[in-house]
Amino acid sequence: MDRRTFVVQLATATAAPFFRVQPSTRPLRADGARVNAALASFDAIGRMPGGINRVAYSDADLAGRAFALDLIRASSLTPRIDAAGNIVARLEGAEPALPPIVIGSHIDSVTDGGNFDGPVGSFGAIEVARSLAAQRVRLRHPLEAVIWQNEEGGTVGSKLAIGKLKASELDLVARSGKTLREGVTRVGGSVERLADAVRAKGSVHCYLELHIEQGGTLERTSRQIGTVTGIVGLRWLDVAVEGFSNHAGTTPMDQRQDALLAAAKFTVAVNDIVSAEPGRQVATVGRIVASPNTRNVIPGRVELTVDLRDLDTAAIDRFEARIRQAASQIAQATGTTFAITQGVSSEAAMSDGRLMDVIDRSAAALGFTGSRMPSGAGHDAQEMAQIAPMAMIFVPSVGGISHSPREFTKAQDVANGVDVLLNAVVAADRL
Ligand code: GLV
Ligand code: MN
Ligand code: MN
């Protein structure tokens, strides 16, 4: 080949799209500013005086999902909504027959929550797909960025994606007042075709999720990145206490069937039961609705919730049994009845060793300090762990505050987390 032909060929080759199947060993960088800009705009959606209110299936949740769909389109990706109502953006790999790497999180919120729990990992995942395409790094595996629907209501979208939500649970009522069945339809899924959304065990190469820590360990220990070792199991109980409504002035103290008094004793008992043993187990009575909820009437009925968590399922079983026993003792002592039903619950999940190494190495290559830690919060990752190797990346929460309007993560920490996710995806592609 003469020099002129070589130069012409070189010019043509560099002008054509150039995809590196094997990216260089230098760490890649995503556009963290773009993720932080998306988070700042997103803050307006569902913002109310008490905090962010994007509970699943509410109008604000739908507005949030429209925002996410626009962000995906602006990233030159084509979103689809699966039959469960999860939003999926797929970037093809060099070997389309390979199972996808799945990354993602959620954008629904708790009542009066913050803007970082979920959106950081959701917009971070979209940014990773966009960065790979923009930097012309082609993975072997397809990459799917997923926004799971209704995480806060019990990881509903990811449970549907692994086929673990029972048909009867579709009738449970979400915080928005809509049943899960209505919710699936409202977010663009189809309850008749739910089977189409199920991902079989082994059909996903691996699952990675970026999330805020929601606790104070990283901040306290001055670490930038957390590699999650495992996620707590979570059991939700719905408790209905039945007493008798009567006049608050004329009913003597020894002739009352006060459902709120029984609920108060029960709340204390739940706290005492889980505090009685050493360990990381926690339990919370977080919601309580008394009827008729009026100053001069003895409450005849109370509905309340219990949220019970531990890394060990056997311990959760043990505490649940003690809680049920306490309920029947309190019922007897107060002339009330307790009906306890199990709500949506999640299994504890351990992270995959090789993926944790991938995250540690990606963080180190970027020059970040890191440490391994368990997650006390629930995540869609624990559902995906049932069908694929899973690991999570945590970034610091200021003051360790979350599920609160004061929830905050610094822009630099968001950008760091997205960079770690990007490089972890590239490394996981080689596993
Ligand atoms: C989800 O955020 C949970 O841990 O409840
Ligand atoms: Mn949350
Ligand atoms: Mn979350």
Rounded radius of gyration (Å): 24 Å
- Overall geometry comes to elongated
Class computed from helices, strands and strand pairing: alpha/beta
- In DSSP terms (H or I, runs of 4 or more residues), the helix count works out at 12
Look at the structure and give the mean pLDDT. Answer: 94
> What compounds are bound to the protein?
glyoxylic acid, manganese (II) ion
Percent range of helical residues: 25-40%
**β content, as a range?**
15-25%
Biggest beta sheet attributes? 9 strands, mixed
Task: Tell me how many strands there are.
Answer: 15
Q: Report, as a whole number of angstroms, the end-to-end distance.
A: 39 Å
Order of helices and strands: HHEEHEEEHEHHEHEEHEEHEEHEHEH
Poorly predicted runs are 1-19
Report a brief summary of the structure.
With 431 residues, this protein is an alpha/beta fold. The chain contains twelve helices and 15 strands.
What are the salient characteristics of this protein?
alpha/beta, disordered N terminus, nine-stranded mixed sheet, four-stranded antiparallel sheet, 431 residues
